[in-house]
Amino acid sequence: MIAARHFCRAAPQIQQSVRRYATDSSSPGGLNRWVKYGGGAFGAVFVGFGVVRFLVGKPEEGSEEARKGYEALTGNKLGYDSDKPAQKTFKGDDKWIDLKLESVEEVNHNTKKFRFALPDKDDVSGLQIASALLTKYKGPEMEKPVIRPYTPTSDEDARGYIDLLIKRYSGGPMSEHLHSMEPPQRLDFKGPIPKYPWSPNKHDHICLIAGGTGIAPMYQLCRAIFKNPSDKTKVTLVFGNISEEDILLKREFEDLENNYPQRFRAFYLLDKPAEEWMGGKGHIGLDLLKTVLPEPKVENMKIFVCGPPGLYQAISGMKKSPKEQGELSGVLKELGYSQDQVYKF
């Protein structure tokens, strides 16, 4: 459970420097490593395979050479007919579509990545930023089906598939069912379910507070921002987990830090860190957020929250319903942020 309590308070000079980043778009990019890794030596930046893939745009349709180059650099196999226009699988209607499970990849001790094939290899999902899909499953002894929302981690332009990153929760009927699935079993999907509508430069600075698999919609936002050369939004990520192996999509976020040091910062906190962990320890709480977030008086900024119930209760208060944000409470209210500055996924 992520509570609204302690975080080891940084030294005053570090707090001042991070605050300058939170409010000054010209802040240099090196400080984050200093804060996040406890003041250790600043590591060199290596431009390798993982970094390059964020610099590569979507290949032009009709260019086979560009398609092959994109696949080689990103590791994402497009596999589509470049001469055929993409069709959207999900159109926002009330229709459930069953998709075939194509592959399963073990990510850590309780998380797997599931790739589901779209009906046609040339299809795109039809999701927009930010949106999610509903999944449905009814077991043989269930009176009613279980319906759960998930945000795919695959790109919205990816053709022929969607990827889901799912953590298995004990007693969670949908996550347990997914973790028991094997190719080529099928699962029902519907959507997209619109969340926060994003457009380039909608906000000058966004702050993402996440726990566990609540990172998926945050990654969707980041991916849209940083693959668009015209979008200059600054992003701060605060990500809480139990242990280091629970930090999902860490490589992808490290790539963003390396490529955009003046626009992207990530702060990781662990409840149960190993002795050698040099990042933040404890829960996401007032001291950390006061240090790394822009002050409430800063104009045109937005804070997004997503994670388990304990995170919402501590940081922002629970949503009233799937479509109603509910009142703002918790640490963010205590720090002076207003309800219209915060969005709960």
H and E order:
HHHHEEEEEHEEHEHEEHEHHE
Q: Could you tell me the mean pLDDT? A: 83
* Stretches with pLDDT under 50, minimum 5 residues: 1-17, 25-63, 66-70
Number of helices: 10
Radius of gyration: 20 Å
Q: Helical residue percent?
A: 10-25%
Described by the principal axes of the CA atoms, the overall outline is: globular
| Residue fraction in strands | 15-25%
End-to-end gap:
18 Å
Record field, number of beta strands: 12
Q: Strand pairing plus helix content: what structural class?
A: alpha/beta
Please, could you describe this protein's structure?
With 345 residues, the protein is of the alpha/beta class. Helices cover 24% and strands 23% of the residues. It has 10 helices and 12 strands. The chain has helices at 12-23, 31-36, 49-52, 64-74, 173-180, 215-226, 250-259, 286-292, 309-315, 330-334; strands at 97-106, 111-117, 131-137, 146-150, 161-167, 186-194, 205-211, 234-241, 264-270, 280-281, 301-306, 342-344. The protein has a 6-stranded antiparallel β-sheet, with helices on one face. Strands 10-9-8-7-11-12 form a 6-stranded parallel β-sheet, sandwiched between helices. Mean pLDDT is 83; it is low at 1-17, 25-63 and 66-70.
